[in-house]
Amino acid sequence: MRAPVRIWYVAGQRLCNLSCARCVSIGEWAMSNRYDWKNPEDRDVYEQVVTWIGTRPYPVKVRLGTLGEPFASTFFLEKAAWLTRQSGVEYVELLSNAILLPRRLPKLEADANLGKLSLWLTWHDGQVDLERFIKAAAFAQERYGCFVVVNTLLFETNADAVACARDAAVAAGLRFNVDLGYDPTASTTLQDPSAAVPVLQSSDALDTLAALGGNRALAEAALIGLTSCRGMLCRAGHDTAFIDIHGQAYRCSNYSSQEQPPLGSVLDPGFDLPLRPEPWAPCAARGGCGNKEDLQIAAPLRPSTVPSLGWTDA
Ligand code: SF4
Ligand code: SF4
């Protein structure tokens, strides 16, 4: 049987129940506190792309991203639930702020295979009460058997808050991850990573990350990819691909944002990914890689068997 393909798709779903100061969805890709889909065609594209993903003749592992909060959108969840029921789909990973899980998961139960649901849950300090967040994450893991990761982002002044989140996650029996927080407004091609990763303005940022339970080696690989990915070997385009909100497929998300040539459109009849047979190939992007998981230098740092694109089991 053919090896699974990892697909990361970002849908045009935008509604979010929070207003984070450093929201990752900006500009053309901005989230909204008012509307779910900016254009009706975004919804149509979403429906078509998810149908395409769920009917591949080979196994797929899916990260289904959005520009907002997926659990705020009934339409989004209906199709995501359908995807979890498709036999070729090994897992569906959603990125969420967790708050709506206790309300939405019981309603999804009848239509979804929640055992295939992987939840990458980011705690947004200042927006969400930590106790409420941890309870929601534990509810998803314990009641429905979802694969849950509690994620935090390390910025200049929130190390104490990240430590509290780590302690609360560990006490609740939840996986915990801390990543370097990015400034989404910074240029992605700058040579100085501290412009895009504000915590690096402190000289001991990586020590702090490691002390908080983060994976230092993976963070170092991430910083190399951010500033100098050009020419580096990575597997994107071999057994992994990215699909943007318009249904265009790319080697990776950075190829999409840098307008590198796409692999084609998922919306074209009969389209399939023209994946590369060789596992590793050099990168042609100008910099700004945020996909450390796919870099050859990071390959020994994470297992490929967990149902999440980001979890390292470190
Ligand atoms: S939860 Fe996510 S999408 Fe919503 S405001 Fe915060 S960062 Fe943006
Ligand atoms: S930008 Fe894309 S192609 Fe380049 S190293 Fe990163 S994942 Fe690979």
TrEMBL record:
Q: Read off the Gene3D superfamilies from this record.
A: Aldolase class I
Give the domain of life. Answer: Bacteria
Q: What is this protein called?
A: Radical SAM protein
Q: Which organism is it from?
A: Streptomyces katrae
